[in-house]
Structure formats: C-alpha cells, structure tokens
Amino acid sequence: MRILFLNGPNLNLLGTRQPEVYGRLTLADLEAMIRRRAEAAEVIVEFRQSNHEGQLVDWLHEARGQFAAVVLNAGAYTHTSVALRDAITAIEIPVIEIHLSNVHAREEFRHQSMIAPVCRGQITGFGAVSYFLGLEAAVLLVEGTP
Ligand code: DQA
Question: Please, what is the Cα angle at 32 between 27 and 34, to 5 degrees?
Fold first, then answer.
C-alpha cells in the first residue's frame, strides 16, 4: 500500500516556525518518524512539501492510480483554496485532512476549512501525533477495517 503525505505552505519551516504552536520537530524529523512507523506496517509512504498551490493540485492529480490514500496538511491553503477542494473531489481517492495545531482553538479564520467537506475526515491539534493518526486513518480506510 502506498500513502502520499502532502504538506503545504510554510511547513518547510517546521522546527523554527512558531515552535510554541507547531513544535520543534522539523518536517524531515516527522517524515523519518512516519517512515519508520509505515515500514513496520509494510506501508510505503512518500512525503512532499510545496509552498505553491498549483504544485499541490498537480500532486493530488498524480496521486490517482499511484497512491491508495493521501494525508494532506494543506497549511494556510486549507482555509482558502477552492482549487485544492476541487482537486480532492476530482481524484476520488480518500484524502485525510491533518493539522499540527488545533485550528478550531485559534483565530476565527482558521475555523473554516475549504477542504473539510470533501476530505474523509479531519485530524487537528495533536502535534506530531496528527501525522501518525493520519497514517493510521489512511491504512484503516484503505484496508476497509473495521
Ligand atoms: C496548520 C494550520 C494552518 O492554519 C496554518 O496555516 C498552517 C499549519 C497546522 O498544521 O496546524 O500553516 O495546517
């Protein structure tokens, strides 16, 4: 099983970006942790990050036929992007929305997710654990359990 982790704008700065909100792990740290967990479950994961909306749209399109599910931290595009929403709708594979911070406990503009209605579900506020839960959700959804 192949799972694609997509990371949106500013997530390349994890580790130094507002560590009180996003923690001190870098994206590379997160990737290494998820990769170890996935290997134990015989799941192949691919991690990508872009600051560009169109690149994320392209990767969602490419996921079709290549990955069983997508775990998506769309960063700020979560709150604004009709293009990402349309891409998620178009690809017809499960997309799981994740966030490190609890977007519902933050500024009001973060309470609205443009992509939530077309994702299978939303995991928010667990820090690095959100990535593990995203992996778990993806595997269970693809396996059809329970
Ligand atoms: C985020 C939450 C978003 O509101 C924010 O714009 C981010 C990161 C998170 O992981 O908590 O860039 O997606």
Answer: 95
Distance 146 CA to ligand 1 centre (A): 30
Residues 5-18 have pLDDT tens digits of 999 999 999 999 99
Report the nearest-CA residue for atom 8 of ligand 1.
Answer: 75
User: 99, 104, 111, 131: which one is catalytic?
Assistant: 99
* DSSP H helices in 48-112: 53-63, 82-91
Task: Note the pLDDT tens digit of each residue in 23-71.
Answer: 999 999 999 999 999 999 999 999 999 999 999 999 999 999 999 999 9
Question: Which residue's entry shows tokens 């990769």?
Answer: 35
Contact yes or no for 22/101 (Cβ under 8 A): yes
CATH value at residue 115: 3.40.50.9100
- CA–centroid distance, 129 to ligand 1, in Å, is 14
Parent domain of 120: 2-143
**Taking 90 as the threshold, does the pLDDT of residue 145 lie above it?**
no
The torsion of the CA quartet 98, 104, 106, 112, rounded to 10 degrees, works out to 80
